UniProtKB/TrEMBL annotation:
Stretches for region Disordered: 182-213
Highest taxon in the source lineage: Bacteria
Residue spans of biased composition, Low complexity class: 194-213
Species: Streptomyces atriruber
This protein's record includes keyword 4Fe-4S: yes
Keywords carried by this UniProt record: 4Fe-4S, DNA damage, DNA repair, Hydrolase, Iron, Iron-sulfur, Metal-binding
Name of the featured protein: Type-5 uracil-DNA glycosylase
Family assignment from sequence similarity: Belongs to the uracil-DNA glycosylase (UDG) superfamily. Type 5 (UDGb) family.
Record domain Uracil-DNA glycosylase-like: where: 46-244
InterPro entries: UDG_Type-4/5, UdgB-like, Uracil-DNA_glycosylase-like, Uracil-DNA_glycosylase-like_sf
């Protein structure tokens, strides 16, 4: 079992945040009427995508009846219904839909993760829960470091969570910390990979050998694919595709063909 497989397995067993454990398991028991016949996942949701990804997408947390039900990031909810068509359009996903963990969806050179791995009440993790979960993200970044070249961070919460993790994983984060905004772009200089990070339950994780030099990391900001943003037009499919395509090119992934953006004011 390689390092990321072991990390994913250990994430699914985490019980470090009592409020999140109680909520995710309650939702899995009571279910939503539309999914009454589902056997909910009801555990922390690990990252999804290849272990040699060049591009990482960082979200917020699993949705109660989305990833908390299906066991895969952004799968089975409205946010995923917005994200995966865009990934497909720019050549980063094998299909435009994500319905279940066994639907055959494959990501190309791209991995999806989140700073909080358990579904939180009202989709709002506390800062303490975010900080407790950070060790998992740091370990994931260290394991991806040999191939990782770009990151797309969805939303201000993810942005605040990601930069301390970048620093802990060895990249050089400027001070003051760069401000979040849609289309924001920051290049982080590489540094030396640090030693293994401690998990939230104080168990060491595997990581690349200490002392390896990291490549620079291009970090891009994007409005979150939440219904609040997508239903109001704050984030359109064209806006999302543009950020994904720019990040994919920075990562060296060469997505499929040029994206034809809609005319100004249109929801492409």
């Amino acid at each position: 079992m390689d390092g990321l497989s072991e990390l994913d397995r250990r994430i699914t067993e985490c019980r470090a945040c009592p409020r999140l454990v109680e909520w995710r398991e309650e939702v899995a028991r009571t279910k939503r009427a539309a999914f009454a016949d589902w056997d909910y996942w009801g555990r922390p949701v690990p990252g999804f995508g290849p272990h040699d990804a060049a591009l990482l997408i960082v979200g917020l947390a699993p949705a109660a009846h989305g990833a908390n039900r299906t066991g895969r990031m952004f799968t089975g909810d409205r946010s995923g219904d917005f994200l995966f068509p865009a990934l497909y359009d720019v050549g980063l996903a094998s299909r435009p839909t994500a319905e279940s963990a066994d639907d055959g969806l494959t990501l190309y050179g791209t991995r999806i993760t989140s700073p909080v791995h358990c579904a939180p009440p009202a989709n709002k993790p506390t800062t303490q829960e975010r900080d407790t979960c950070r060790a998992w993200l740091v370990s994931e970044l260290k394991l991806l470091a040999p191939t990782l070249r770009a990151v797309v961070v969805l939303g201000g919460f993810g942005w605040q969570a990601a930069f301390p993790a970048f620093a802990a994983a060895g990249w050089q984060v400027p001070k003051p910390r760069p401000a979040f905004g849609h289309g924001a772009h920051v290049r982080l200089a590489g540094g030396s990979v640090q030693g293994p990070e401690q998990s939230p339950e104080q168990s060491p994780e595997q990581s690349p050998e200490q002392g390896l030099e990291q490549e620079p990391l291009d970090v891009f900001g994007c409005f979150h694919v939440s219904q609040r943003n997508t239903f109001t037009g704050r984030l359109t499919p064209g806006m999302l595709r543009e950020v994904l395509r720019t990040a994919a090119l920075a990562a060296g992934l060469h997505p499929n063909g040029p994206i034809e953006l809609a005319a100004p004011g249109a929801d492409s």
